[in-house]
Amino acid sequence: MEEIKRFLTLKGDQGRKSKQAYKFCFCFRRIFKLKMAEPPQDIVDLFNDYSDNGVMTVENLHKFLTEFQGENHTIESAQDLFNRIKHLPVFLRRGLNLDAFFLYLLGEQNPPLDPPMVHHNMNKPLAHYFMYTGHNSYLTGNQLSSASSIEPIIKALKSGVKVIELDLWPSKRNKNDIVVCHGGTMTSPVELNKCLEAIKENAFDVSEYPVIITFEDHLDHLLQAKVAQMVSDIFGEMLYPGVEFVEFPSPEELKRRILISTKPPKESLDSFNEQENQEQKIKNSTDRSGAVLGNVSGYRNYDEVDIPIKDNEEAEEEAAAPEYKHLIAIHAHKLEHGLDNLLNDNNSRRVARLSMSEEKLKNSVKTHATDIVRFTQKNLLRVYPKGTRILSSNYNPLIGWTHGAQMVAFNMQGYEKNTWIMQGMFRANGGCGYVKKPDFLLSNKAFDPSIKRPVKKTLKVTLYMGDGWHLEFRRTHFDPFSPPDFFTKVEICGVPADIKKEQTVPIEDQWVPMWNKKFEFPLTAPDIALLRIEVCEFDLDRRHGFGGQTCLPVSELKSGIRAVPLFGKKGEKFEHVKLLMRFQLLPGVY
Q: What residues are labeled active site?
């Protein structure tokens, strides 16, 4: 168990090695006196308040859990927890002493979020949920020259992603075959059937809620028919039949189903537009997904809802793909006559999906913020990275979420701050890939995130200390000449009025930094706020080292003192590294 390893390591250090030597200038050695992990004063005081004569009994533990931690425990459940921590080497027969209590607080039994369990109402239409969404889900690296593979698709699905994007092209080797690749680039292709099989085998590993596949289709009607047959053969009864919804079904209704979303083929698009012209036509929208990078690979790159200009003969040839039309459960349409007409037309009887780039969204919300929020109350909005993000970087997802966009599409192979924010959002609701939108995004009075509103809650955060780096990394990992100088960044990501960044001072030359720092974050929209934490190793040249990160949904934080595990740049959980923190989410301003 981690707690035993932590205890034995620290006790061994205390007994044998409270000093650490580092080479300096080839022939010299610097000796550093190291502090060992010990309970902060707040923990000592807390233990004294909830113990008798230095021992915390089951009854004392139950009182601590209910009164201070705010947990719903019976004496029986407190006994179960008591039994689970009896293995600690400092456990007394009568109960917990201070060291055991400290190790419990810093251990696996005391996480900042509840165990994974779906707890949101999953019976509302799909438009009422944020969905964990990938962009170019088949790419292993950059957008220009990396390989296409099924491995990123599998990895995404196993991490909880529920919307997968595939770009469909005729194969260069055999025009009767269909491949998946990023058009207009040097990326290598992967066979479509392999991608579909990978989705089928891994779609419901994380949860049974539906998987949506968005096709960016560059095929003629013959290959579209072939896609339809292939999809039907592989998915069978998993496949949700093509319909045109008046209202989207709920995730609960769509459990273990796979839905296809793409633009309708030429024939159905014409008939759709003709009927909508008679019913106060919706002018569906999108924009181009960045500049074409050139016909390097023989594929021309269009956005998923752009239709190449064809002559009459080609248009007639493309106009008949009924099998393909019957695949499409979520129709994607393009903007033809301006954003105003689309967003303000509330008379359409059918719902659909609209796509726009991050740049288009940023510009649109300046004048149409409430219209976009209102549009996303019934329809789906997909936002995708701009075409210049060749290295698979990502944008701030809050620009989409705070305006109701359900599908904020990310390059899952990009590892940086915005990706960590995305991962933080989808830790909510048991990590099932669907997060219910806050009520204010579904209200009849459309929400505008740029307008500052009264503070609803204040998040109080106390950062006591960190521990575990000495078990996770080699001695010279952060600095070859001395122990690390850790400091921590703490920030709120949310609506503009709630954004706030804080940080601690660096603690020099210590593997177990003790910060004892308090922060306060007033929140006007706590239901969409995220708490982002990043530990850095201070460097004078400002190229600080990376010591771990996490991002947590504020609405799901457990109150009280918690052990917060940290993750690596790629989202992998560190085995030992944790922060000891206290969270208080209080009403109003403090």
A: 135, 182
